[in-house]
Structures
1.
Amino acid sequence: MVDILHKIRIHAPQEKVFESLTSQAGLAGWWTQDVKAQARLDAEIHFGFDAGKTVMRFRISELSPPDRVSWRCLDGDSQWKGTLIVFQLSQDGGSTVVHFAQQDWAQATSMFMHCNTKWAYFLLSLKSYCENGVGTPHPDDLKL
Amino acid sequence: MVDILHKIRIHAPQEKVFESLTSQAGLAGWWTQDVKAQARLDAEIHFGFDAGKTVMRFRISELSPPDRVSWRCLDGDSQWKGTLIVFQLSQDGGSTVVHFAQQDWAQATSMFMHCNTKWAYFLLSLKSYCENGVGTPHPDDLKL
C-alpha cells in the first residue's frame, strides 16, 4: 500500500479552510464545480469530472470541526475505490497548516503519480480560494 | 524507504524539456535562480535557496539525452542527503511526459510531505517555463 501525502500552508483562519473542505460552495470553489455535498457524518458526497463522465462517490467517515475530515472512496475509479482521503488541519500563528493524505493505493502506478501531482495542483487551488476567494476548480483546471 | 513520485505533461519538444533540466539557464528558469550547473556526467551541480543559506549539492549520476537525467544528493539537507532525483522523459504525440522521482527518503516526515507538494509546484513551473518561457523559480516561488 502507498499513500499520497502533501502539506501546505494557507494564510486563512482554520474555520475558513474547514468550511472550504466540507460545504458544497467551498468544495466547488477549489476542486470541482460539479459537486453534491453536505457536512454530515456518513453522508455521501459526489464529485463530477469531464462533464459528468466520471463521478467519484465518497462517504464522510470522520467530521471533527475544525480539525479533521476524511472521506472513504466508494467508487468512480478502480484505483481510487477503497482509498481514504484525510485533511488534517492545525493552526500555526496566523495561518492554517493542511496535512493531506490519500491512503491505501494498491500500487504506485503512473495514475498514482499523475494524481499526486494533481492533488498538489488542487491544494494550491484551495490555498488561493481561501486566501483570495478564487480557485481553479475543474473544469477550469490545468490539464496535467 | 519512500519516494516522491510525480507525472506531468508538457506541451513542448522533449529536447527543450531535457535542456531545461540540464543547462544552467534552463534550471535557473524554473527551480532556483541561484544555480551552478553543467551538463556533464559526474559533474557537481549546486542549487542555492534563501539567499545562499541553504545550498543543495548533487552529482549527475545519469545523463542520457533526451530521455533521462538523475542526480544523487551529496549534501545540503540531512533528509535529502543520499536521495536520488530522476527525471524520465518520453514523447507522447506533440507533448513530453515527465516522470519525476526523488527516491530513498528514510521516512515520510512532515518535511517529505512539504517537499512533495513543493516539487509539484516546481514541476508546474517547469511546464510553464517550457511552454511559455516564464517559470516561478526561487526566490520568486510561492512559500508553501
2.
Amino acid sequence: MTHEYGATFPRLRDAAGTVWRDYTHHAFVEGLREGRLPRKAFLGYLVQDYVFLIHFARAWALAVTKADALEEMRACAATVDALVNHELSLHVKTCAEAGLSEDDLYSAEEHPANLAYTRYVLDAGHSGNFLDLLAALAPCVMGYGEIGARLGPVPDDHPYADWIATYADDDYQQVCRDAGALFDGAVARRLGDNPTATPGWERLCQRFTTATRLEVAFWDMGLSFG
Amino acid sequence: MTHEYGATFPRLRDAAGTVWRDYTHHAFVEGLREGRLPRKAFLGYLVQDYVFLIHFARAWALAVTKADALEEMRACAATVDALVNHELSLHVKTCAEAGLSEDDLYSAEEHPANLAYTRYVLDAGHSGNFLDLLAALAPCVMGYGEIGARLGPVPDDHPYADWIATYADDDYQQVCRDAGALFDGAVARRLGDNPTATPGWERLCQRFTTATRLEVAFWDMGLSFG
Amino acid sequence: MTHEYGATFPRLRDAAGTVWRDYTHHAFVEGLREGRLPRKAFLGYLVQDYVFLIHFARAWALAVTKADALEEMRACAATVDALVNHELSLHVKTCAEAGLSEDDLYSAEEHPANLAYTRYVLDAGHSGNFLDLLAALAPCVMGYGEIGARLGPVPDDHPYADWIATYADDDYQQVCRDAGALFDGAVARRLGDNPTATPGWERLCQRFTTATRLEVAFWDMGLSFG
Amino acid sequence: MTHEYGATFPRLRDAAGTVWRDYTHHAFVEGLREGRLPRKAFLGYLVQDYVFLIHFARAWALAVTKADALEEMRACAATVDALVNHELSLHVKTCAEAGLSEDDLYSAEEHPANLAYTRYVLDAGHSGNFLDLLAALAPCVMGYGEIGARLGPVPDDHPYADWIATYADDDYQQVCRDAGALFDGAVARRLGDNPTATPGWERLCQRFTTATRLEVAFWDMGLSFG
C-alpha cells in the first residue's frame, strides 16, 4: 500500500531526503502509535496545533488570492471553509474534556516553533507564487496523511484512537488525494510536463524541505511539553 | 422599511454624500428596474461582473488572512466559499443562455473600470488592516442589498426578474445583515464605542467613498456596452 | 539606434503587438513632441503622474519583499529610494510653478485610470512572484525610455523641454538599461535559457500587455484634462 | 542618560515588562560587554544576523507599501536602502575575516529562531496596518540602540569593539531617534493624542512584546553556537 497523493508530492518528498522520515517517524509520532505519549505532551501539542490550524487556514486563504484557475480557487476556498468552520472540532472536543474552551485555544501563546512554521508558510506565499505556497503547505497535509495511514486503524480503546482515526479515515485520505491533484495540476499549468528539469523546481524543493524541517521542530516542541 | 444593515454602514453611507445615490440610483439601475436596459448592456455587464466576483472573492479571502477574531475568520471564509463555490450560478446560467461558457467568463478581458475597482479593494486590504478592507468591500455588498430591496419584488415576466430576485430575496438580505454585524463587531473591537470620533474614522470614510465612486464607474461601463 | 534594454523587454514588447505603438505613439505623446499639448492637459497629467509614481514606488518596494537574490533586492531598493527621495522633483518643481504644493499632489484624488494601473501592478506582485511584478512594471519604465529617446534632444525653449529631457537624458536611459539587466537576470534565474518556451512565458506576456493597455488609458485620461 | 527614542517606544517597552530586560541584558549581551563571548557563538550569531537583516529589510520595504504619508514612505525607503545597500558591511567584513563570503552569508540555512522572528514581523505587516508592522520592527531597532548605548564606548582592543561601536555610535543612535519620531508621528496620525486609551493600543503592545520574546530566543540561539 502506497500513499503517493499524486506525482508531485512523492518527488518533493524524495528530494527532501532523510528529514521526511525524521518528521513522519518522529518519537512523538511513535509515542502516539504505541499509546505511550504522555497526555501532557499530547494536550500541549493539541493547543499549539489548534493555533497552527488557524494560521494554516490563513495560508490556504492566501492561496485563494494567488490562484490562476477557477478550480484552484474553488479547491482552496473549500479547504479554508473546512478548516475554520468544521475541522477544528477534534481539537475543541478533546481540549474541552481537559477543561479548555475554544477561546482558551484561540488566544493561547504561540510557541516559537509554531510561529516559525506558520509564518514561514505565509511568507512563502507572499514572497512567491501559488506553487511556492503549495510546496510549503504540502508537508503538513500529506505528512499527516502518511502518518494516519500507517498508524490506523486502531481499536477504540487506544489512548489516541480519536487522533489516529482523524487522519487514517478515508475522509482525510481523500483530502490528501485532492490536494495532490491540485498540486499536480498547478505544476503542469506553470512548469509544464517535465517540472523537475525547470529552474523553478529547486526552489519548490527548498520550500518543501524547509517546511518539513519545521514539522520536525513542531514535534520536538510537543515532546518538550511532556 | 429601512435597510440599515447595522450601525457602521449607514454612517459611512451618509458620509459618502451624493455619490451613494449616484451609485444606487444610477441610470443602469433604473434601466433594470423599468426593464428598459438593453440586453446587450446587461450581458456585457454580467460578464464583467463575473470577473468582478472572482476578484471580490479574492478580497474576502484576503480578509480571512487579516481577521483578528475567530468569528471574523469564519464569516469571511464562509463568504469566500459561498462566492466561488455557489453564488456565481446566476451569472453562469444567464450567460449560458446567451452562449457563453464559464471558461469564457473566467477568461474575459477585464474592462479598466473593473480592474480599477477590484484591485483598489485588494490594495485597501494589503495596505491597511481588516477594517480598511471591510470599508472597501461594504459598498458592493450593501449597495446591492439596498438596490435589490428597492427594485423587488417584481413579476416573473419582468425582463430582469432573475437579477432583481437574487438581490431582493431574503437570502441576500441576510448576507447584508450578517456583513453589517461583522462590520459593527470589527469596528467595536478596533475603534471602540465612539468610532466616528477616532482618527481612523476619516480613513474608513475615504475607503468607502472611493469604492462607491468605482461602483458608479462600473455602471457607466455597463451602459457603454449597450 | 535601437533601445532594446536587454533581451526580455523586446520580446515582451513584440508579443504585445500594436498596443505598444498605441502607447508610445499616443496622441498625448505626439502633443508633447510637437509642443502642441494644451498646458491644462499636461498639468492634469502631471498631478496624476505624481500620485502614480507614489504607488509605483510602493510596487518597487513590494518587489524588494519578493526578490530571490541579493542583487535583485539591491536594485529594487535603490529604485524605491530614488523614486520617493529624489525623482519626484520634476513633478514638484513644475507643479509649484503652477501653484500646487507637494501636499496638494500627494492628496490629489486619483482618476480611475490611475487607480486601475497602479493597483493592477501591485496585485500582479501580490498574486504572483517577482517576475510577474517585473512584467507589470516594465512597460512604464522602458516605454518612457523609448519615448524619451525618440523625442529628445530638443531646444531649451521647447514647451516640454524639461519633461522630454528627464526621459531622454542618459541618466534615465541608464535606469532603463539597468532595469533590463535586472529583468534578464530574473528571467534566467527562474525560467532558464529558453524562457519563451516555458509555460510561464504566456503569463508574463499577459501581464506586460495589460499594463501597456493601462498606459494607453492613462494618456487618454491626460488628453481628457485638456 | 536615558535613551527614550520618542514617546511611543518607552510606553511599549514598559508594557512589555521583564521580557525587555531579558532581551537587553541577555547572557549573550553580557558576554559581548565583558568580551567573554566565545568567538564561535559570535560568528554563528553574525551569520544568522546577516540573514535576519535581509528579511528585516524586506519588512521595512513592506512598510513602504503600507505608509499613509509621504514622510513615512521616505523614512522607510531610506531605511531599506541603508540596510541592503550599506549597513550589512559590518557583517560582511567580520565574516570575510573568518573566511565566509557574502554569498555564504546570503545562502546560510536559517535557524528556526531566526525564521520565527523575521516571518513574524512580516506577518505583522501583512495581517495588520503600518502601526502593527512598526510595533514589531521597534524592539530590534531600539533594543540594539539601548544595548549599544550601555555597552559603548569601549577601547579599540576590546574583542567586540567593532560590534559595540556600530550600535553605540551616534549614527546608529540617530537611526533610533529617527525611528522613534516616525513611530510617534504614525501613532498620532492613527490613534490620536491619547493612544494608550484606544482599543488598538493593546494589540500594539502584543506585537511589541512578542517580537521582544523572539529577540530573547535569537540570543539563546547565538549562545547555542558557542
3.
Amino acid sequence: MLIPDYVEGTFQMSTPSRADAVRNRQLALDAATALLAEPDAALTVEAIAKKAGLGAGTVVRAFGGKEALLDAAVAGLLRPVVARARDLAADDRPDRALRTFLGELMTFQAAHHAAGDNLRGLAAPETTALRGELVAAVETMLTGAQRAGRVRADIPLGTLTAVIGEAAYAVARSGAADHIDAFLTVLLDGLKPST
Amino acid sequence: MLIPDYVEGTFQMSTPSRADAVRNRQLALDAATALLAEPDAALTVEAIAKKAGLGAGTVVRAFGGKEALLDAAVAGLLRPVVARARDLAADDRPDRALRTFLGELMTFQAAHHAAGDNLRGLAAPETTALRGELVAAVETMLTGAQRAGRVRADIPLGTLTAVIGEAAYAVARSGAADHIDAFLTVLLDGLKPST
C-alpha cells in the first residue's frame, strides 16, 4: 500500500493531469481574487496558496509566477468594469454617464484596495491594457460632454482625465460612501463650463 | 599614540559631551529632512546615518528612535506651512485664501513625497498635532467662504475638508504643476454655491 501511494504522489507532482492543472489554476485565481477584496490583505504566494488549499509550488507552477497570477486576477475583476464603461460611453447624456461611471468605479475601488497597491511595480500587461481601455472610455464620455456643452473645454483632455483618475482613486480608497458622493458632486459641478 | 586615541574614543562613545549630542541631533535631523525631499528615498536609520556622516547607533541615541526623528523632521517642515495657513485663514477673501493655500500645500507635498509615506503607521505626535492645525485652518477658510456666500454649504464641513485633503494629496503626489492647476480650477469652481 505504501509504495503505490508514494509512486502515485510522485507521478502527480511531476506531471499533474490536465484536469488537475486547470483546477489548480482556477483555485489559485479564485483565492487571489478573494484576497483582492480583503482590506490590507498581503498578496503573497503563501497567502494565496493557503486560501486556495494548495501548496505554494503548485500556485507558482499554475501561473508561472505571482505577477502573472495577480495580473489575471485583477484583469478578471476589471473586465466587467471596462464593459460597463463602454456601455456608458455610448449614453446620449455623457455628463450623466460620467457621474454614474465614476461612482461605480469608486465603489469598486473602495472594495478592492489591495488591487492597486499590489500591482504597483509589477509587470501586469493585461491589467495595463484594461486600464488603458477605461481611460479611453472616460475620455469618450468627457469629449461627448464637452461637445454637448456640459463639460468645460479649457483644460486639456489628458490633464483632466489624469487629475480625475488620481483624485477619484484617492477618495475611493480612503473615503466612505458619503465621501464618494461629496467628491462627485463637487467634481461634476467643477467640470461644468463656466458661464 | 594608539592607546590614548582608543581611550578617548571609548570615553566619547559612552558619554558624549553635551555639545556633541546637540551637534549629532542636528546632523541627524538635517539628514532626515533632506531625505524627505528626495523622491522615493528610503528613510531607514542606516540611510539617515550615512547622509549625516554618523553611526547608526549615534542617530538612534540622538532621538531615542527612528519614529521620534522622523516626527521631528516632518514637524520642522510642516511648521511654516501651518503658520502660512493661519495667516491665510485671516484673509478677508477666504475663497481666494483657500486656493492660494491649497496651491502652496500641494507644491509642498509634491516636493516631499517621502513625508507622508514614511510616517504611515508610526507614532508621530508632533506631526499629528500640526496636521490637526492645518485641517482647522482649512475649515476656518471654508467656513468664512461659506459665510461670504462663496463656497457651497450643502455638504458637511468635515466631509468637504476630508475629501479636499485626500484628493489634493493624491494629485500633488502624482501630478505635475499643470495637474495641480487643473485640480484647483475644477475644485474651486465645484465648491461655488450652485446658482
